[in-house]
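Trying the structure run again after the queue cleared.
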Amino acid sequence: ICIINTAGQHLLKTAMEKLNLSASAYDWILKVSRTIADLSASEDIKPEHLAEAIQYSSLDREGWGV
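Done. Tokens:
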């Protein structure tokens, strides 16, 4: 379950536009942010969880994930 507040939605929308991310990247960010929220024992995905997942996505796009 991915419950994201308004601030988180805005952050994700901005990242999608500025980083020109694909729909699969959007899904990946949601999955990773849900995992980060679970590790933080948080029921909801908070903006800081999304921000961390977006950072990981940016690293992966730069070739760090290879």
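DSSP finds three helices and no strands in the chain. Worth checking whether this holds up in the mutant runs.
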